[in-house]
Structures are given as structure tokens and as C-alpha cells.
Amino acid sequence: MQAKNQTIIVKKQSNTQNQGIVYSVTDGIVLISGMRNATAGDMLTIHGKQKEILGMVFNLDQDFVSAVLFGREEEVQEGSFAVRNEALFSVKVGLWMFGRVLNGIGGAIDTGIVHQDNVLDVLGAVETRAPNIISRTPVVVPLMTGIKAIDALIPIGHGQRELIIGDRQTGKTTIAVDTILNQKHDNVEALTVLNDITKITFSIYVAIGQRMASIQKVRDLLVERSVEQFTAIFAAAASDSAPLQFVAPYTGCVLGEYIRDILYGRAFIIYDDLSKHAVAYRQMSLLLRRPPGREAYPGDVFYIHARLLERAAALDKKVGGGSLTALPVIETQYGDVSAYIPTNVISITDGQIFLETSLFFKGIRPAINVGLSVSRIGSAAQSKALKIISGSLKLALAQYREMEIFARLGSDLDDNTQRLLIRGAILTKLLNQGANVPVPLSSQIFTIYAGVSGKMDPSAIRATSIYAQTFTKCLNEDVLLHMSNILTLFSNMKILKFQYNRNFVEKFLSSKQFLSLLLDIYFIGMNSQIRKIKATFASI
Q1: Domain spanning 393-538: which CATH class is it, in words?
Q2: Which of 82, 88, 60 is nearest to 69 (CA)?
Q3: Domain boundaries, the chain
Q4: In a 10 Å sphere around its CB, with 0-12 CB exposed, 13-18 middle and 19+ buried, how is residue 407 labelled?
Q5: pLDDT tens across 415-445, in order?
Q6: 294-342 pLDDT, tens per residue?
């Protein structure tokens, strides 16, 4: 009987030490006294005026704990009751999140049906360890973005971490959204034909510190293209509190890990952008009175991004074979990639796509600086056919950019240099691409081969027949017009009927002889068109 009474006393003391009273609320930071068992990262439930608010412990002091609120601080007042949940801060995730717009802690904020918990939902801690080395596998499966310049020059693979970096309004979000759009065909095929959920690439878009109008614009585009059912949007808008902006990327990562570790599928997550994420963490840290460091950021600002991005990985088949790919976005100021946060994230990721403002204003889309952009995975995660065709592309573009500087000086140029400049200008034109129009792999291969083979050079076009620009719009030196005509011809000939069949593309379109034959067919057709036009004019 005495032992039983002692157990009851211990339980009462334990319950008392897991409870506390709020004695201060300021800018989303609450100070709680009496919670002696609290540890950093613990999940708290604070009883507000009308509803309960979630919080997370950050600082541990001798007399009180400091926690951040994930909700309206107006609900909490001095004297409010706080309870420690005896677990790290966790969120419930599941397949229901795809097709929805969610807040920073995974609650639906759109007008959809209210979700009821079911057996498929999983409770995941926002702070977990990254997969160990033994469970990882090399990145070899390509993640096609549908952007010619990226898939050919800076390939991305499932499980990679590729940084998108550049000044504001240079097309960073466009690259990320185009990648989501490009997954549509493969996802529909995996769902309807293969009936294999592990072949679906689920997309997670985390918007941090953006205007809600910009997030709505992305949502409307995804709905218009019918890809919203494969995409979850986490919206931590500029109007939300700093704690919500801070936790949103980790919540999105929990959903990505659910796809990779539970469903053994593929997911890729876009953090747009981590510059604003660092600013939100700086605001929280200063309010928590943590000592500031360089640019007033706390000393562990590198660690918050490192522990987030290290969770992206391709796993070995022995542990399911799933993958989580991360595309973090960083905004620079006047192209300064040597600033604090950009250098931090560059050192964490497996490569970067650098967008340059000067190229953007020249009309080059996407405005990728080929010299500063790199993929440290290399061609290991590139389509085999595209790897064979685009082997000399990066060298040709680098030589063109270098020679272009000398050409501006007005010095006399030899024939080889002039040919190099012409070829580089043609390749730059062919790689140009509008926003939200991802290009299939087969069309990318045709386009790039037409440029690197020299068959789109003005001399090659003239050599097909007597140059007759006045006869028809098809017979001029407009490279993009010719490329459009080629793809239209191939489509009419049913050659592109199997353009989405990866086996067909990798087997047949990796042959330069086969591609050369197809281009010759186009120019032969153009010759016959010239003869018909000339005969028509002669009879007049």
C-alpha cells in the first residue's frame, strides 16, 4: 500500500513538472515558469482564450523556458496554462496533403474538405536525423526539369540537392515550377498505366516569406495544368509570424520523408526561399536574446540549413529505394554570391544554378550563367541519350562567351573564330525557352543535336538549295523557326509518337546517325518545297 502511494506521488510530481504558467508574451515568444522537465524542441500546448495554440521550446533558463508560438499570440495572455506533450514537436502528414494549400505546421488553409485523421496518416517529428551513409545510394536516376539548358548542362538527379541562386525577379521560382509541370506525363502514366505509386514524383512547394498573391498565382497555374493533385503547397506568407516561417521547411520535409521512407516513392521539395527563412530565424533568435554574430545572424544559422538539406537523399533498395530531392532557392543582392547565407548554402548543396541579371535583361531565358553553374553529381544522373548528344555543348558555349568579349573590341576575326561565334549564338538561341513550357526529352535531343552538329548554321541552311527568303517564311536563317518546323514535321510523321517512351528515346535518339537522317529528311522536304514554289512563280 505504501509503495502504491509513493507511485501516485511521483506521478503527480511528474505531471506538475510538465506544466507551467505563461508570465510573458511578446512578438510570438512566450516565457513559461514551472516547467522543470522541459527539453529543447519539446512540443507544447498552450490553452488560449478560445482555442489551444501549439508551441515549441527553444531556450532553457534556470527559472523559466522560452518557447515560440505557432499561432496568434492574441489568444495567449499572462497566466495561460501550458502543458508539455513529452515529445519533440511533430506534425501529422499523409497523402491527403497533395492538392491542398497548407500552413507552416501542416494545417489546411484552403477551401477544401476538412480532413479527418485515418490510418494512412503518420506523426513525424520536424527535427530528425538525416539518413546515414550506409542506407544511401549514389544519385543515378535523372529528375527531368523540362528546361533544355538545365537537363543538358546541369543535370539534376533524384536524391540530389541543387541550389537555385540569383537576384530577385530573375526566374528562380519559374525554374522550380517548370520542374513540377514537367512531371505531369510520367506521373499520370505511373498512376493509370503502370499503377505503381513508387514511380510517381510527388512535388512539395514551400513558400517562405512571400506575398500570398504570388503563392496563389503558383497554385492557379498548377490547377490550370492539372498537376495540383501531385503537389502540396506549404504557405508561410510574409504576413505570418517568424516561427511559422521558420518551421515550414521542416514540416514540408516531414511530408517528403513520408513519401520516401513509408511509401518508398520519389519526392522533390522546393524551399522558396531560404534567404527569408534565415531572416525569420534571425528575428526569432534576437527576440530570444541569443547573441548575434555576422550580419546579426545567430551562430548556428549554418546548422539550421545543413540539418534541413542533409535529409534529402536517395536510399538503397534494401531500405525501400525511395528518394527525396531538394531544390533550395537563395536570393542574392546585386549578384553577390560571396555573402553569408549564399556561401553557407552553396557549401551544403551538390551544385548550383546561377541566374544572372545581365543575361536576363538580354532576353536569355532562363538566364543561366553556364560558367558559375555546376552540378557536382555530373552526368551520372543524366539521360544517356542526352549525355551523348550534348557532350560538346558546354565547351562550345564557354568558348563562345570567351570569344564574344574579344569580338566586342572590333578586331579582325579569322574564319574559325567567326564560325565559333555564329555557332555559339545559334546554341544560345536554341536553348532559349519561355516560362511554364517544359520541353519533352525527345524534343530536347533533336534541338540540341541540330545546334551542335552544325546543321542549323546559316551556311548549312543555304547549302540545302538556292537561298530564297522571299518565296516562303520557312526558308530563312531564323534558327528557332526552323527548329519549330522540324519538330512539327517529325510530329506529323509520327516519329515523335513515342516521345514519352523513355526506352525508345534512350535507344534510338542516342544515335547521331539516326538524328542526322531525320534532319536530312527535313531539309530534303524543304528542297522539294522550294522547287514547287519556284515552279509556281515561273508559271505566273
Answers
A1: mainly alpha
A2: 82
A3: 16-88, 92-108+123-382, 393-538
A4: middle
A5: 888 888 888 888 888 898 889 999 888 888 8
A6: 999 999 999 999 999 999 999 999 999 999 999 999 999 998 999 999 9
Assigned fold of 16-88:
Elongation Factor Tu (Ef-tu); domain 3 (2.40.30)
Grid cell locating 353: 544554378
**Phi, psi of 351, rounded to the nearest 5 degrees:** 145, 170
Using alpha carbons, list the distances in angstroms from residue 459 to 392, 466, 467, 477.
Answer: 20, 11, 10, 9
Question: How far is the C-alpha of 158 from the C-alpha of 315, rounded, in Å?
Answer: 10
Asked: is 92-108+123-382 a CATH 3.90.870.40 domain? The reply is no
Q: Is the dihedral of CA 325, 328, 329, 330 positive or negative?
A: negative
Cα 274 from Cα 270, distance rounded (Å): 10
User: In three state form, how does the secondary structure of 281-317 look?
Assistant: HHHHHHHCCCCECHHHCECCHHHHHHHHHCCCCEECH
Strand, coil or helix: 361: helix
CA distances (Å), origin 367, targets 147, 370, 413: 12, 9, 28
Query: What pLDDT digit, counting tens, does each position of 367-395 carry?
Result: 999 888 999 887 889 988 888 888 888 88
Please tell me what DSSP assigns to residue 315.
B
Phi/psi for 491 (5° steps) reads -65, -40
The pLDDT-based confidence of 472 (bands split at 50, 70, 90) is very low
Active site includes 225?
A: no
Matching residue, cell 516560362? 435
What letter represents residue 86's amino acid? E
Cβ neighbours of residue 269 closer than 8 Å, sequence gap 6 or more? 203, 204, 205, 206, 252, 253, 256, 312, 324, 325, 326, 327
Q: How far apart are CA 105 and CA 28, in angstroms?
A: 15
Is the alpha carbon torsion for 144, 149, 155, 161 positive or negative?
negative
How far is it, in rounded angstroms, from Cα 510 to Cα 527? 27
Cell numbers at 233, concatenated: 503547397
Q: Cβ distance 69 to 243 under 8 Å? A: yes
Residue 54: strand, helix, or coil: strand
Are the C-beta atoms of residues 330 and 165 closer than 8 Å to each other?
yes
> Does the bond joining 350 to the residue before it have cis omega, within 30 degrees of 0?
no
User: At 53, is the secondary structure helix, strand, or coil?
Assistant: strand
Name the one residue in this structure whose C-alpha cell is 478560445: 50
Report whether 392 contacts 513 (CB < 8 A). Answer: no
Q: Which candidate in 376, 419, 462, 502 is catalytic?
A: 376
Confidence of residue 7 (pLDDT cuts 50, 70, 90): very low
Residue tagged 501542416 (cell numbers): 106
What's 83-123 look like in SS3? Answer: EEEEEECEEEECHHHCCCEECCCCCECCCCCCCCCCCCCEE
Q: Rounded CA gap, 403 and 423, in Å?
A: 12
**Total residues found in the chain within this entry:** 540
Residue 145 burial class via C-beta count within 10 angstroms: exposed 0-12, middle 13-18, buried 19 and up: buried
Asked if residue 365 has pLDDT above 60, the reply is yes
Closest CA to 241 of 104, 108, 109: 104
